[in-house]
Predict the structure.
Amino acid sequence: MLSVSPLAPVSIPSHLAPGLQPSAHTSSASSAGCRWPSSAVGLLGAVGVARSRRKAVVTGVERKSKVARAPKPKASFNWEKQWYPVLPLSMLEGSGPEPIKLLNKDLVLWKDGDGEWRCNSGICPHRLAPLAHGRVNSDGQLMCRFHGWCFKGNGSCSKVPMAEGDEEAKARLLGQERSKLASYPTKIKKGLLFVWPHAGSEKEALGKDPFVPEELSESPNWSCFDVPAGWRVWLEQSWDPSHAPFLHQYALPNFAPEYASAMEPFQIQDLGDEGLKVSHGGYMQSNMGMKADRRFMPPCANSTSYLYPDGRIIGFNFYFIPTEPGKVRQITTSYFVPSKDEESKQKSNLSGNMMQMSKVVLKGRSLGSAETKVRRSWVTSALAWSQERWPELGRIRRGLAAWKLLQGLLGDQDNTILSFQDSVGLPAVQHGQLRQPRVSEKYGGPASEYLLETNADALVARFGAWIAERGGGPFGSLKKDPEPVDQQMVFDRWMAHTSFSKDAQAALSFLSRLSDIAERLVAWSCLAAAAALALGLVRLAALPLLGAALGSWGAKKARRKAQGFLSALPLPPALPKRKLWE
């Protein structure tokens, strides 16, 4: 059985050049791990594309091309002049400020006095302090924590406490361009806060809507995770459904190499600067009757619907937000439309396990346009009543639900492979230390690090050509030195989710308090048992001893669950390993 030890960096394969072997001074390029979003991609994920001409539908195998054609970058496509989701509104509390990273820019989100969410550069121009450590004052302005400088929503400096009484200093600072923060347009759509990371193009931003599928409800249940590896490899992974039965073995029913099936050619429509539209079939014995329709909407959206033979539709919407080189924020949700003909379920060629799998996928997710009605039991009614009076209970409940997503296998399986691929594998090829990039015999296009020659590789090949034509993506064709992967960072749950999720923090605080109460119960129960024994009440001592045992068990369970919000590694003295494929 395979396992991954987080105590040491993943070693670079021996066939790489000696210069690639890790040194004691090599730092990690990976980041915090994630659970759900990547698992859904690997689970139903899915598309492939055959190389196509612009705005033409391509079906089947393309003409072979052995000549590498250097793509001409499209000057009209600007990666900054796009709408990127940054956080679900459910994860924003009060007026902020909240730090975010987008396109390698340090930004800050905050709500002004008019109740509008603002986004500005996150570093104070005075002494470079992080504005996310500040607060929103009573005037609805952003105040720096270091020296109290205040800024309006448009970034203009409105107050410098140390300039009071110094009119010359005020004239040089207040309302001046030199002290102004860059301001970026924001927009809210279906529970997501979007940012346009290009200052000075507000009119252009207002004329363009962020992409959110219409099939989603107005307030979907969004999940948000920061994950290792870069924007390119995560989107490529989402275009590659064939990896699921291999990489995600044992994670869900029917996911095993022996159940894999070769894919048929994909149908692809190149929409130019509007992205790609793709249709494809199944990739395992259990879903060969499924039809998937997928849409890539620049700059970072993957919207997919899966139509099963029994009439069910399962839809997923993923955003892979490029925060900085080597790191991505994933924001995702789902919707479900049940079969209208219940008898068709018996005629479906889907196995019982596959039917069950779709229920697992949807657990804790948004049901969107589902046409089913859930009968509210007295339990759910009581829960709703209590949450209305104590909102913190709702946060704890949602945080505990997120814990289930954090603890799955699918995400760690993706993170372990992709973080290695992005930080070691791709740079090794780009630097010519593993092998030279080559042109696909089947798909042609620009030279790639990959060997893309099967039907299942089609969309990865076409996506690579699409981004090459647009300058290589948000960070261009940045080449970095190969670095070993720090698996401790891959399994870091605090940075992946808990640090910016108020629900997860509420659940973690609740579990910590619960553990403390259980430990006190153990102490008091032991004292009561000792007193009973001292008085000769042997039978009576059994009751507090039972309480001590229950308290010890509860404290241990609460601590272990709390650990899941901080790291995927077990508490000592357990072995610090994650066994991902057994």
Summary: The CA atoms of residues 197 and 331 lie 18 Å apart.
